[in-house]
Write a structure and sequence with these properties.
The chain has 189 residues and is mostly helical. It has six helices and no strands. Helix content is 83%, strand content 0%. It is globular and about 65 Å long.
Length: 189
């Protein structure tokens, strides 16, 4: 049963999406930021436990990035609806994830099993999205000095960097999929 602890922590992160979004919607930034930090800690702990004690599972490998993306995309959407993030940025971030998920589904349908491994650029993309959202939350906490500092980092240059990294990451996945499809079709009889 203890071997399931990483997966349970990942499920807890998914459950945290709802109250985090609620607190954001209610403009309770401190509570939302705390929940996001709890989600970050559980992400580090579940991965650390899985690697340290060899408790990795196929379910966990699939669920962990879903938990991260669900939280990030939800916060992007809430902030966009509140006019705290530009619509164009949210559209790029959300469209990238939808295209990747749809592409994986289509690839699996047409080609069969697909190995999903996040790339370094994709990991950097997700990490930068999380850092940007944390900075945005700090910016809206109205803390002297820190809020101004956080907003100066994120708007507009952080937004541009987020968009560029999302596009580059999405294009990279596209080329990986094309290369994989070519390899599979070249082996076909």
């Amino acid at each position: 049963m203890i071997r399931m602890l990483p997966n349970l922590l990942t499920l807890a992160r998914i459950i945290l999406v709802v109250p985090t979004a609620w607190y954001l919607w209610q403009q309770q930034m401190a509570a939302a930021l705390m929940l996001m930090l709890v989600a970050g800690v559980t992400d580090a702990v579940d991965g650390g436990l899985a690697r340290r004690f060899a408790w990795q599972s196929h379910f966990g490998e699939l669920l962990d990035p879903v938990a991260d993306k669900l939280l990030v995309v939800t916060i992007f959407i809430v902030f966009t609806l509140q006019d705290r993030l530009p619509l164009w940025l949210a559209a790029i971030v959300v469209a990238r994830d939808i295209v990747i998920i749809s592409g994986v589904g289509l690839y699996r349908l047409k080609m069969g099993q697909v190995a999903i491994a996040p790339t370094l650029i994709s990991k950097a993309n997700t990490a930068l999205q999380i850092v940007a959202l944390v900075l945005l939350m700090i910016g809206y906490l109205a803390l002297p000095t820190y809020s101004d500092w956080a907003m100066a980092i994120i708007d507009p240059y952080g937004f541009i960097l987020l968009a560029l990294l999302a596009v580059v990451s999405g294009v990279q996945y596209f080329f990986i999929a094309v290369r994989g499809a070519r390899a599979v079709s070249s082996r076909a009889p």
